[in-house]
Amino acid sequence: MSPPLHAQTGPLPEAAVLEGLPPVHEVSASEVAARISGGPRLVVLDDDPTGTQTVADVPVLTSWTVDDLRWALRQDSAVFFVLTNTRSLSPEDAAARNREVVRALHAASAAEGTGYVLASRGDSTLRGHFPLETDVLAEELTELGAGAPDGVVLVPAYIEAGRLTVGSRHWMRTADGLLPVGESEFARDATFGYRSSSLPEWVEEKTGGRIPADEVLRVTLDDLRGGGPAHTARLLSSLRGGRTAVVDAVCDDDLRVLALALAEAEVNGTRLVYRVGPSFVRARAGQAARAPLTPAELRPLRGDAPHGLIVVGSHVALTTRQLDRLRERGGIAEYELDVALLLDEERRDAHIAEVAAAAAGALDSADAVIRTSRVLVTGADADDSLAISRRVSAALVQAVRQVNASRRPAFVLAKGGITSSDTATHGLRIRRAWARGTLLPGIVSLWEPVDGPAAGIPYIVFAGNVGGADALADALDLLRSA
């Protein structure tokens, strides 16, 4: 007899993980949209910019002044994103930034007469400042008089990227099958590493035992599919005292059942904060999955220059494979920022200027790639490693700014979470934008900046940990076709 799934290690055939599940409880996006119409706005505090990759025609802010937030609240959208980039920050700075956003949002909400519900968007492979961020949001809401949250709802699923939760266990799709996420390379992250694939056990691990696994509410596929929205709403309405709930999801319908249940629980007075992956946002906002943007849709968005700029900071193995395939397709000029030189104060600025000048000069004849050296440099501990990542990302930002100042590219594509956030906020100085859609199904978001030096240059956000080996080359082919 085979051991139970939770006791096995290594990837398993997807059919083995998914066999025996209840039939899907179908819910349309339009049903969710009708249910949430006129209700509070979903405000997503995104710890890096990649959370927009499942939605379309949604406002994005990289600044959180009261005026910026009032602009977003006035737009005709059930949801908007605030790019906090907290995954790149120390715990202390991440906490301070979350507090700033919530205070400004509360003031903007009062000025506009519009309610809101908060989602803390984290990584679908479970990296990030949890439980710190949801703790801080709960504290701020309480202090502002909005009421202490009754519960925190954890939904890390990212359907398009193959991050699925079954039996409260989180899996990621690989070429060899579904792998428990705690056995993945992401679980060995120098800053946000962990051991557990079981979400209740992961919560216990990340809270240092403050929240025991057996006190976590498990909302399973049996609840979502067998019980449906009404049953799931009753479960969520039982949350008290900030208790954590973890939710299964294998498809969009599972998340839309959850969205209806959340709306029902909240209208009956249950106060909730969400910690979620990208797919939840689309379901909760009442959007259906959309096909990638077409060349005809991209053409009016593309800048006037003949070629674009690709900036690569991500170090995961998948990004390296994607770079290799991009080289095989051709048509690029590639320039390396040497991390050793970037950490050398005397040589850093000259090295960045040299690379930026070469990349800008190449844009007349090729798409230019600026990438960091592929050898990962880590520090003595998690904080030191994060500081090195920030230092390297700042160099990429400096290079992007210099390229754009001398030769505006047709587009800018940034690869990696911290990289894409810093490039948007500091390299291109985007404050307000619209996430218009994707270049690949459910991944790789395209933003249309509406202000600043990047207005008129489409900006493409490409996470480090998504897509197949050909994804980067395929995205670039689509941009070239426009």
Can you walk me through this structure?
With 482 residues, this protein is an alpha/beta fold. Helix content is 39%, strand content 19%. The chain is built from 16 helices and 18 strands. Strands 9-10-5-11-4-1-3-2-16-17-18-15-12-14-13 form a 15-stranded mixed sheet, sandwiched between helices. β16 and β17 form a beta hairpin. α7 packs parallel to α8 (252-267). The longest helix is centred in the C-terminal third of the chain and has 25 residues, at 382-406. It is globular. The model has no long low-confidence stretch (mean pLDDT 93).
- What is the distance, rounded to the nearest whole angstrom, between the alpha carbons of the first and last residues? 55 Å
Q: Judging from the principal axes of the Cα atoms, what is the shape?
A: globular
Low-confidence stretches: none
Overall radius of gyration: 22 Å
Structural class: alpha/beta
Strand-residue fraction?
15-25%
Number of strands: 18
Give me the side-by-side strand order of the main sheet: 9-10-5-11-4-1-3-2-16-17-18-15-12-14-13
